[in-house]
Amino acid sequence: MGNLSPQPKSPIVGDQTLQIEINTDKGIAESAFQTHGLRIEGLSGLPWTITTDSGKIDPRSGAITIEPSAGIPTQHLLIKGSLDALDWTLKYDLTGIGRITKSLTITPKKDLLVKTVSLWNGRSETAPIVSSTTLQDIAAFYRQKNEGLFVSLDFPYSKIMREGTTTAVTYPPYQKLKAGQTYTFHTLTIGATNLTNKIRYGFDEGEVDAMDTYVQERFTPRFQRPMFVSACINNRYTQLQGDAVFYTMKDHPTFSFNPDILKREMELLPKLGMEYYQLWTGPFDSVSDDPDPSFVKQTVREGRKLGLRLGDYSGTQEMFCGHYNEHRNSLENHPEWGISRADVCFGNPKFVKFYKDLVVKNAKRYGFEIHCLDFLNIHPCDATNHGHPTGQDSVYEQIKGLVEILEGLNAVSPEMMTWSNSGNWAELLPKIAWANPNLYLTDPFIADPWQGLNMTRLLDDARRQQMVSLHYTRFVPYRNFTNCQYFFSQNSVVPDIRNYQYGALSSIAVTPNLCLAEVRPWMDHLPEQSQKEVIDFYKKWTDFLKSNYGLWTKTYHVGGNPGGKEVEVYSHAKGDHGFVFLVNPYYWNQVVSVLPDRSLGFEGLGQYEVTERYPIERRRIVGLNAIGPAGASFNVEVPAQTVIVIEIQPAPKTITEPRLYGVPGTVEQTKDGYVVKTSGQQGVTERCIVMLPKTENSVTEVSVRDVPKQPLRLWSPTPISEVVINGSSVAFDVMFRRDKAPSDLRQWRVQKGTLADGLAAGWSAEIPNATEMQLPMFTNYVFSLTPDTKPGPIHVGPLAEFCGAYVENAFSEVQETWIDLKTGLKSKLLVGPLMGNKTSPSYHVQNPIEADDAKTWWVSTSFHLPFNYMIGAEPPFDDHQLLVFPFTDPSRVVQIKAWINGVPLDVNRYLYPRNRALSCFYADLVGSAALGGKTNKLVVYFEVN
Ligand SMILES: [Zn+2]
Fold it and tell me: What angle do CA 484, 485, 486 make, to 5 degrees?
């Protein structure tokens, strides 16, 4: 890669990745830009322009000095100039690899009102791509084949405007300057982008990556550890009534109510790994003796002892919080504040000072280290007495005021964390993260027809969808997001205790931060054993994130986008070590191919070993002798509704101890060989490889002990098959005793027909002449990390809406199993390579029936249920075995009926409490005609519009 050729009087600033040439032949100009050694054709521009009350000013005239003046690319360039109206200093500094930051300082010679400033005025025939929110513009992107650059103001507001062939990145400081007063504008950064031509959500992954790095590196992130936070709010009892929110406070700890529950909650949170805890009331809702200042101080002290940092809340422009405004505080009954409703605007210095002084004073008074800001509602303001220009330009002034408040709070303590809440914070992305590092942008909501029977889990999926889409469209680093696992909507068909782990892990798949809200009220209703499980789980994974935080400052993403019906693959890796999260939110299993290369953050990884960290702690088999060859991918079958977490690291060079792959457990030496002590779900077959240190001996026999001892009347074998030895090591399949529980039902027989015709023909018991096929039809593709292997779109009819069925919570037990490996000098066992089971996805072959436009369908399948409850001795609803009928869009379903073993089955619709326009169909197998220990015939009729 060469440099932009230096000409006389043409200094160059930059590095090998980005260079800017400054030409002073005719005035001053940014005369050329080069990224990755290639010149961006036809791009040049004026270094700066400002508009003032006495017209437009730019640096094309007047005397100029440049240091250094020419030659080799420099990392710092200083240009000084003198105009009639002002003296100016422009600095170019290399602030990162391929990133140059510009800074402009002016000293007017007479009083001057600076209305707008543009540190970027790029002339180009082709307009750049501009990323925007509705309130402001984020960055301009210039693209040329495989390289390009971005231009961004280093402030969470800018406007990017094109006039003729010039694009300006501008903002309205609206600053009155006195003669001789020196003033520095917000800086602006130009960064090289390396285009990958892989587009997600409209932007090239290379652009997203460059912006993410810029946001993380332009200003040092405040937190070099995960942000774990909780709040005392108990929204379960929300009832909106006039200006009051809530019904009961009896289960609700605050500084003023229920100190006993507050104490209990404070003791619980650190056990879950939480560090920050936000409490009410905040300074606006308080009065002088409520909350009692000595109680607040004492509570903060007690929190510190527990490792908990406490803090409060304010409602931005609303100030007051309808949930907690016990004393009905208002601006009217606080005349001493000197603020009227008409003053309220973050663009109004008087209001900003009042707000900042109050929240900062309160934080300092009590030693608070968290402040939550809610209800943000910045919009153009037309007030003429707020000291800002009216309309759109007022938005800059308001964001500046908000940032000033955030920075005031941040200055209270190095550990202070401001935490955005609801409102229009997303409008200020991504750069508001510099002042407000923890972005929680909305209370949980769901807008897309995600299929499921647990509200909390569905909200976690929707949050991940929000975080991922905002990462790609607004370039927010994942380290600045948080998912609030909010246990406030407990009205689910299946309980949170079976879903919270998925919710937590699918969140930390993308972000290191976690908020647990209403966790104590949820846990209060759990039995002691489940409480212990919840505590152990969160402690384990919050500790894990703390020790691996460095890897979580970057999230690698391959595979599907959330909601795209494919497994999502997220990775956190550096060098030859990392963790990969495979997230399958859907009701059908999918096979993904994982290639631990640069796309997942791995570099220099040779032969590798894969350890599953969740759901089963075990080493996985990925190749010959269980080891992954250098540079090779491996396939993983990700079961429906599951997150798999795997750790990838270099394989051991030699084995000195027995090493177990494929199943969890241990290998222990016995008098005539070894015993493998393992366990697995009943009926599941697992491939197992035992690598043993090299000796003269081979495995001569593999047999299962009757341990733990089974009752004779229920005795069930544990088959061992496919035994292969190689040297002293051995591979075999083990099927854990008893029948396998059903999960996703994929093999179906389908036939079009109306309800009346089918009933008349007896199809509810048996559908003759039906077509065999696998459902859902769109998932039979191979999913590969190389995008070109995916077949193109095909026409599908309404049958595609039906995604098969899933048996939720079918009875299954873990079977402890002891396997003896006898060793000796001579073995009669088969000798061969030690390989895993081939997990390979099948290609989809289209059947003509898929394109049929019929809207009424009969479909049937069968499944074996190992056990069903009888004689009315039945568990509570939470423990029922259910059938789930996921549809692509359940709102299209006009009618659905089902029969099990020829007997009608009630199909119910679960309307999601957080959006009752969305739903999922299910049926209860307990009390139905489904038989335990037998194969059951399921027939479904449905009509879609
Ligand atoms: Zn205003």
Answer: 90
Residue 517 near residue 230, CB atoms below 8 Å: yes
Please return the burial class of 915, using the count of CB atoms within 10 Å of its CB with bins 0-12, 13-18 and 19+: middle
Closest CA to 511 of 437, 450, 564: 437
For residues 502 and 641, what is the distance between their CA atoms, to the nearest angstrom?
8
Helix (H, G, I), strand (E, B) or coil at 192: strand
How far is residue 269's CA from residue 275's CA, in Å, rounded to a whole number?
8
For 550, the 3-state DSSP assignment is: helix
Beta bridge partners of 161: 168
CA of 354 to the centre of ligand 1 (A): 15
- Residue 345 Cα to ligand 1 middle (Å): 5
Angle (CA) 187-188-189 rounded to 5° is: 130
Amino acid at 917: A
pLDDT at 2 over 80: no
Q: What is the b/e burial string over 390-421, where b = at least 16 CB atoms within 10 angstroms of the residue's CB? A: eeebbbbbbbbbbbbbbebbbebbeebbbbbb
Distance 172 CA to ligand 1 centre (A): 14
How far, in Å, CA of 560 to CA of 127, rounded?
Answer: 31
Give the tens place of pLDDT for each residue, 689-704. 999 999 999 999 999 9
99 vs 245, which has greater pLDDT?
99
Cβ burial, residue 510 (10 Å; 0-12/13-18/19+): buried
pLDDT digits (tens, 9 = 90+) for 498-524: 999 999 999 999 999 999 999 999 999
Three-class SS state of 272: coil
b/e map 4-42, b = 16+ CB within 10 Å: beeeeebbbbbbbbbbbbbbbeeebbbbbbbbbeebbee
At 62, the pLDDT band (50, 70, 90 cuts) reads confident
Contact 89, 149 (CB under 8 A): no
Identify the band that residue 788 occupies on the pLDDT scale cut at 50, 70 and 90: very low
- pLDDT surpassing 80 at residue 241: yes
* pLDDT bracket for residue 789 (50, 70, 90): very low
Distance 384 CA to ligand 1 centre (A): 8
Give the separation between CA 683 and CA 718, rounded to whole angstroms: 9
Residue 308: phi and psi, rounded to 5, are -115, 135
Which residues neighbour ligand 1 (ion) by CB within 5 Å? Answer: 345, 347, 381, 383, 386
Q: Is 924 within 8 Å of 869 (Cβ atoms)?
A: no
Q: How many residues does the chain have?
A: 945
- Ligand 1 centroid to Cα of residue 350, in Å, is 11
Nearest to 66 by CA among 51, 50, 80: 80
Q: What is the DSSP letter of 74?
A: B
Q: How confident is the model at residue 784 (pLDDT cuts 50, 70, 90)?
A: very low
Ligand 1 center–CA 137 separation, angstroms: 20
Per-residue model confidence (pLDDT) at position 842 = 63
Q: How far is CA 486 from CA 229, 535, 641, 701, 944, in A?
A: 12, 16, 19, 53, 34
**Strands, E, within 706-844: which ranges?**
720-726, 729-735, 744-745, 747-752, 771-774, 805-808, 814-824
Contacts (Cβ under 8 Å, ≥6 apart) of 802: 775, 776, 857, 859, 885, 887, 940, 942
Return the closest-CA partner of residue 22 out of 83, 87, 76.
Answer: 76
Q: Higher confidence at residue 785 or residue 545?
A: 545
Q: How large is the average pLDDT for residues 316-322? A: 94
pTM of the model: 0.96
